[in-house]
Specification:
The structure is a homodimer. By secondary structure, the first copy, chain A, is α+β, with helices and mostly antiparallel strands. In chain A, about 50% of the residues lie in helices and about 15% in strands. The first copy, chain A, is elongated. Chain A binds a DNA duplex through helix 2 and helix 3.
Chain lengths: ~350, ~350
DNA sequence: CATTGGCACTCCCCGAAGTGGAGTGCCAGA
DNA sequence: TCTGGCACTCCACTTCGGGGAGTGCCAATG
């Protein structure tokens, strides 16, 4: 079947090109992969694949290079899922097992991911909106100055200061603390915010000063709805950009700039928090034309893979099967750790 | 005085070279700076400066370029301290004023610093050892599982989990909480750790289960002496590396690698936390030969400028006066903010 | 003795020209 | 439908030479 061989040719070209970084020609192809046909036949196939838009030549009389469309077909239909090796699994667990808190888990994840894929790794902090409130602490720093600490199920901790209008006694403080916790603890962020709001309205006749309650609740609700902090993303493995070597201006510069922009990163990762599968965005498929030479491999993690996203950013010319396997493996491991703690 | 003119020549060369990125020749020098002598005279001076090791030529019959030693002299004796402009001060305050918590302050600082200096900015988290304990919170997640939250004067928050051997009642928990806070709150980290240790030893006959106290104290002390978390450093402005343009392998690659290594970064910043002055390390003066082409401009911040360090890393060929001014300005502003909160 | 103009010299940069080779497209034959 | 052969294309690399910026040195000058 000729159609079948053509796909085999495409796969072979992608693999060779990824491995060697050089346009691959018909002769080299038949030698490296034992296709039992002559170079001339391959040339015909390659010409056909080029017509269909899966390949290009950097210039006439050069070998072929996959296009974005070519990579896409490869990823969707041609790549065999590479199972994670034992060594990789060992690397992941030995890296992540020592983590003491959320920050630590996130930072270690970026590191493993960067190391395994040899690409730039990106990990998003757990989204506020998917968390529940584990505990709210209210501490009096001075009689009129409170410290609020909001502890979430994901391990995230938010803290805020409140300046009171009047002094708050020890007993009032304790009452406030317990009422706030009663309302919020165990609830999803959105529900907790609503419950607190109700609490503030009911407080006008309550035991402790109403203004204190109102201030505290306001601050907490604001912290809960503070989506700015959803935007936190950790990046690692930038040194891997060094491997690009050439094509500094077309690849590295825009990528470095994108990595500085958390918003951009989130957008790149964003599409990934769904369905549990690993998402691959290849080259110009994304919204940023400066990143036409880069691909994103990402997936969600956490319960339902919907807590937040994590992945890597690299050149379109990359080892997709291996990268996808690594991304998935790390995501799973992180999910498990978060689940346990 | 010839000696005086020589220094003027060195200064002029440094300034021109920084501005143009090209070896500066005798003729261009007399034109741009109104030295009232002939190019030939300048040539003599340049030859002398070269003999003394302040200049080099990339090759015979090229202009002169400052050596590390030349930059050093420039920084120590020739540069006039550039006052921060109003625009810079405005940028700093508008950037930093909106910060809600420590994380936020740190991240915003890196950003301004990177933007002002157009270099890679590095900010170290406040050192544990210089902090005092603001509050310790003990929360029962389940009857046998405690969450410890350690809040420090710098705004840092550390959290740890403890798995108890036996259930702990509400009253015991409250007692434990208040005793721990009594011992630790307000103390310097080291003193707090000592006080907690004493507490644990005294607890064997105390009211609440001794094993719980011991576990909690152990965990807290460990968190307090966890210098690993002292190693946290935030990096920003990597995109500014793009300006290096050429010399990718000699400058950017090793720098990117260094930026990944927190330990290296800390070592680079390390010498800066003292004396209040801005420290400049030029090229090969540092311990890493891969970074022979980069300089570090850093200073301490916080009370006595000893809390932690902050600064920038860039090519030896940089605008030292401007960079030093920016680093100092940001450090002062950050100190002020931390002081207020 | 510092300063200056003059002059020969050095070495890089840059564009032009030439060559080798890998790879292609096409065609005619099996 | 596949294959070998062949002419052709175009890049990558090297070589060569001119132009020019800049230097070092020297002899003259105040």
């Amino acid at each position: 079947m000729q159609e079948e061989r053509r796909l085999a040719v495409l796969r072979a070209i992608v693999e060779d090109y990824v491995a060697t970084d050089e346009p691959v020609g018909s002769k080299a192809l038949v030698e490296r992969h034992h296709l039992n046909v002559s170079p001339a036949t391959i040339r015909n196939d390659m010409a056909a694949l080029e017509d269909e838009g899966y390949l290009t030549q950097p210039h006439t009389s050069a070998g072929r290079v996959p296009t974005d469309k070519g990579y896409r077909l490869f990823v969707d239909r041609l790549s065999t899922v590479k199972p994670t090796t034992a060594a990789e699994r060992r690397a992941i667990s030995s890296f992540l097992d020592g983590a003491v808190d959320l920050d630590d888990v996130i930072h270690r994840s970026v590191r493993v991911l960067a190391q395994l894929t040899r690409q730039v790794a990106v990990v998003q902090y757990p989204t506020l909106s998917r968390s529940t409130v584990r505990h709210v602490e209210v501490v009096a720093l001075t009689p009129t100055r409170l410290l609020l600490v909001l502890i979430l199920s994901t391990g995230r901790v938010e803290q805020r200061h409140v300046e009171l209008e009047a002094e708050l006694g020890e007993a009032d403080l304790a009452a406030l603390r317990s009422r706030v916790n009663l309302a919020a603890t165990g609830e999803m962020i959105a529900d907790a915010a609503a419950a607190l709001d109700a609490l503030a309205r009911a407080a006008d006749g309550g035991p402790e000063p109403a203004s204190a309650t109102r201030l505290v609740v306001e601050t907490l609700v604001e912290a809960m709805s503070d989506h700015r902090s959803d935007e936190r993303v950790v990046v690692g493995g930038t040194a891997n950009l060094a491997r690009f070597g050439d094509s500094f201006d077309t690849s590295i510069r825009p990528l470095l700039e994108a990595l500085e922009e958390q918003v951009v990163l989130l957008k790149l990762l964003g599409e990934a928090t769904s369905g549990g599968a690993v998402t691959v965005r290849i080259g110009a498929e994304g919204p940023y034309e400066e990143l036409a030479a880069t691909s994103v491999v990402a997936t969600g993690y956490g319960p339902d893979d919907a807590l937040a996203a994590l992945g890597i950013v690299g050149p379109t010319r990359m080892d997709y099967p291996g990268t996808m396997a690594a991304v998935r493996a790390v995501a799973r491991y992180v999910s498990r750790i978060l689940d346990e703690s």
